[in-house]
Recover the amino acids of this structure.
């Protein structure tokens, strides 16, 4: 363990070091910058400092700074933590980060994220319920019926 670093802080640092560096391809670099800009804009609109958001999201200040500048690509878990700290729907954050595939972008999560009639809390709740149902269905999916031979 690092000298002078508590167990929880050490685990957080190690976890952050395991995240990927910003992706190499131009499209992925653009997505990294876009999600970083999006997070920075949301943070500033909320009147929250970088340090405050880092503390609320459970990540280090330098790591969050790198994410905002597009130098690091946060995991889905970190994006969820940041979304929660900013009170933004997780699917919105995932869409911005390019974590949802084309099917999902055009599907239910995208519709929830884009609905102006819903509050952020409602979007978050609906998204979580939807994902819970999808996971349940995937676990309990019956095997295809086998045709019986005469």
């Amino acid at each position: 363990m690092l000298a002078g670093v508590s167990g929880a802080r050490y685990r957080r640092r190690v976890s952050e070091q395991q995240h990927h560096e910003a992706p190499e391809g131009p499209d992925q670099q653009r997505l990294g910058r876009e999600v970083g800009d999006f997070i920075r804009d949301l943070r500033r609109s909320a009147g929250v400092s970088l340090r405050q958001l880092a503390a609320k999201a459970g990540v280090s200040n330098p790591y969050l700074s790198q994410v905002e500048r597009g130098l690091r690509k946060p995991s889905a878990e970190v994006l969820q933590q940041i979304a929660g700290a900013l009170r933004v729907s997780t699917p919105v954050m995932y869409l911005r980060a390019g974590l949802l595939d084309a099917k999902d972008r055009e599907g239910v999560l995208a519709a929830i994220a884009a609905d102006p009639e819903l509050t952020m809390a409602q979007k978050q709740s609906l998204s979580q319920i939807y994902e819970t149902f999808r996971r349940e269905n995937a676990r309990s999916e019956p095997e295809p019926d086998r045709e019986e031979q005469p």
